[in-house]
Design brief:
mainly alpha, 44% helix, 8% strand
């Protein structure tokens, strides 16, 4: 059936709506939307409102529970689109692709998909990474505040409240994480709290800040590493990745936003087709 211009425009709009909906799906470990990471390989929508999405990951051995979580979340957000009539999500090139894709197709759920291998509750796993994401966002805000104010002592960070933070993407990110953990976002609320909303005494603040920093560095480092692995595995994924500023080194600027600490294997290939050993 040939498509009219109106039908073509509608399908184009639906593809954009699919990608916007997928912006809400995060890699649980890297704390970034799968769209920014380049994990969305393709999106197709037909005239009947059937949606098909292919996902790709940096390696074939990425954690199966993480892979399932992202694929399952993708199907959930796309099913909620009021015009979608059916949704099929495929996870490509993963060692558990067959298991995960079958589980998604049959709506088997996490335990139904992995059966006896599903030793953890998916909600518990999701909560663990939500806590880490909040910890990292909190550290980014407090470290930025500390660096911008020479008179602010590290031990005084425990008294900083949300109203003290400058407006911007770092604060917005922290507020989103606090909302997820139901910590509340009143301007008088303390910034430096654990996942239960409990603050720290002045003598506890330095150690708590260092632990939060190690969490943030781990997330940032893994994010840059996984981005590089994906670009090596799928060179065309470069165009689909959004620059990640957090954790970026000054030297990265010469690579137009790409992490210079990771060199894709494709760049090591000579004109004769041979690869350098490093």
């Amino acid at each position: 059936m040939s498509l009219t211009p109106t039908m073509t425009a509608t399908r184009h709009t639906h593809v954009e709506a699919v990608r916007e909906a997928l912006d809400a799906v995060f890699d649980p470990e890297l704390d970034e939307p799968i769209t920014d990471l380049g994990f969305v390989r393709s999106v197709t929508v037909d005239e009947a409102g059937s949606v098909e999405v292919h996902l790709r990951l940096p390696t074939s051995f990425c954690s199966p529970n993480f892979a399932y979580l992202m694929a399952s979340d993708s199907k959930d957000v796309l099913t909620r689109l009021d015009w979608s009539r059916s949704v099929t999500v495929w996870l490509d090139d993963h060692h558990d692709s067959d298991i995960i894709n079958h589980g998604l197709a049959t709506d088997a759920g996490y335990k139904g998909t992995f059966r006896h291998e599903a030793d953890n509750n998916l909600d518990e796993l999701r909560h663990t990474f939500q806590v880490k994401a909040h910890t990292a966002a909190m550290e980014r805000c407090l470290t930025a505040l500390l660096r911008s104010n020479d008179d602010l002592a590290e031990s005084a960070l425990g008294d900083v409240v949300l109203g003290d933070l400058p407006e911007g993407p770092e604060k917005e990110s922290l507020l989103r994480r606090r909302t997820t953990l139901r910590l509340g976002n009143h301007p008088s609320a303390r910034v430096m709290v654990d996942e239960h909303g409990v603050g720290y005494e002045p003598d506890q603040v330095p150690m708590a800040l260092r632990r939060a920093r190690s969490t943030r560095i781990s997330i940032d480092g893994n994010a840059h590493f996984c981005r590089g692995l994906l670009r090596t595995r799928y060179p065309d994924s470069r165009e689909d990745q959004t620059r990640r500023v957090d954790g970026e080194e000054p030297a990265d600027e010469q690579y137009a936003g790409y992490d210079a600490t990771f060199i894709p294997l494709t760049t090591l290939t000579t004109h004769s087709g041979k690869e350098h050993s490093r």
